[in-house]
Amino acid sequence: MVRLPCLLLLLLPLLRVSAPEPCELDDEDYRCACNFTSPQPDWSSALQCMVAVEVEVRGGGRGLEEFLLKSASADPKQYADMLKALRLRRLTVGAARVPAQLLAAVLRALGYSRLKELTLEDLEVTGQIPPPLQETPGPALTTLTLRNVSWAAGGAWLGELQQWLKPNLKVLKVAQTRPLAFSCTQLRTFPVLSTLDLSDNPRLGERGLTAALCPSKFPALEDLELRNAGMGTPNGVCAALAGAGVRPHRLDLSHNPLRATTSGAPGCVWPATLSSLNLSFAELEQVPKGLPPKLSVLDLSCNKLNRAPRPDELPDVNNLTLEGNPYLDPEALQHQENTMASGVAPVCARSALTVGVSGTLALLQGARGFA
Ligand SMILES: *[C@@H]1O[C@H](CO)[C@@H](O)[C@H](O)[C@H]1NC(C)=O
Ligand SMILES: *[C@@H]1O[C@H](CO)[C@@H](O)[C@H](O)[C@H]1NC(C)=O
Ligand SMILES: *[C@@H]1O[C@H](CO)[C@@H](O)[C@H](O)[C@H]1NC(C)=O
Ligand SMILES: *[C@@H]1O[C@H](CO)[C@@H](O)[C@H](O)[C@H]1NC(C)=O
């Protein structure tokens, strides 16, 4: 009776010598993460993730072409009951070169699951996504996030991907992804999309924004997030919104190096729906001209304002934030010019850290500027 455990204990060091398990499931069976970095990874290790709610799979940067043949012969309908029973709600797929056909096969299978949030990260998608067969729509995602994904399909990628999703998408986040100029004619309407986050695309600019905001495709948009997206002036953003007929309630332009609008520039009519505008961390030395006449929230914190804005320079606003400007904290300007977070006024340093990627990228860009 006692012998078996002893034997196992003896085996334990031997087992450890072989490559470490690529997948790890936490004690609550909630989160499972796989990192297939070794040259001959043990893919079967991923089976333990079947019980998890949150799964992250990273491919060690390899090409996944070998799975294409396997997926071609598999009919997910056969496994529909099993896929339906999965607890999986959040899935991240990263660090790989993925044939678009394989992505389509995965989305088809996930169509039987109850996945809600999908993140694609550090991927190169090759080829074009084939259109779905009529009776096999993909998952009913509410959130789709793409970070550092490049698409061989060019601007058509969003339209191709959209065909595989049920029309439930509420949140779309696209960062560091190429290309960002969508082929608007191929895009269908996102009927319930309320948040479009194009933050952390420092090369986007107003021109890129105009190309990304396909007219009448985002009728339910409430939040437009453009942190660190290379925006030049609030007026330019206003023009892009007006051109696309996009009517957000909240607009985040923080972490953009904004310039003051030149006095001769044509005015722009902001959407009447806009009630919250974030212009923090925008290097503003004065309040830009041509802001919406009335707002409930205006965040001008962590800029370079040297004096208190006069009432005639400001919109009619209920909730104005001016913290972290040099006229309130004389040391702030000096600190900001040093650009190191350690020196920035405390309120600004804290946000710069909590903002995560935006803050990091902003700092990196700042550092590059000095190199
Ligand atoms: C995956 O493994 C590689 C190599 O060991 C490592 O550099 C990387 O940070 C890991 N990724 C994650 C998300 O743990
Ligand atoms: C972006 O993804 C590619 C793979 O497509 C990878 O090689 C690269 O390191 C990633 N970049 C960053 C900043 O993570
Ligand atoms: C003003 O906005 C800030 C940030 O959104 C919030 O914390 C604060 O409660 C708001 N104040 C009022 C009076 O609405
Ligand atoms: C404005 O943006 C900054 C940085 O992105 C953030 O810390 C702050 O909470 C935002 N303000 C409002 C009112 O949402």
TrEMBL record:
It is a lipid-anchor; GPI-anchor. GO terms for cellular component: external side of plasma membrane; extracellular space; Golgi apparatus; lipopolysaccharide receptor complex; membrane raft. The keyword Nucleus does not apply. Residues 1-20 form the signal peptide. Disulfide bonds join 23-34, 32-49, 184-214, 238-268. One of its GO terms (biological process) is inflammatory response. GO terms for molecular function: lipopolysaccharide binding; lipopolysaccharide immune receptor activity; lipoteichoic acid binding; molecular carrier activity. Its main location: membrane. Keywords: Cell membrane, Disulfide bond, Glycoprotein, Golgi apparatus, GPI-anchor, Immunity, Inflammatory response, Innate immunity, Leucine-rich repeat, Lipoprotein, Membrane, Repeat, Secreted, Signal. Coiled coil: none annotated. It is found in: Cell membrane; Golgi apparatus; Membrane raft; Secreted. InterPro entries: LRR_dom_sf, Monocyte_diff_Ag_CD14. Belongs to the lipopolysaccharide (LPS) receptor, a multi-protein complex containing at least CD14, LY96 and TLR4. Interacts with LPAR1. Coreceptor for bacterial lipopolysaccharide. In concert with LBP, binds to monomeric lipopolysaccharide and delivers it to the LY96/TLR4 complex, thereby mediating the innate immune response to bacterial lipopolysaccharide (LPS). Acts via MyD88, TIRAP and TRAF6, leading to NF-kappa-B activation, cytokine secretion and the inflammatory response. This is Monocyte differentiation antigen CD14. It comes from Catagonus wagneri.
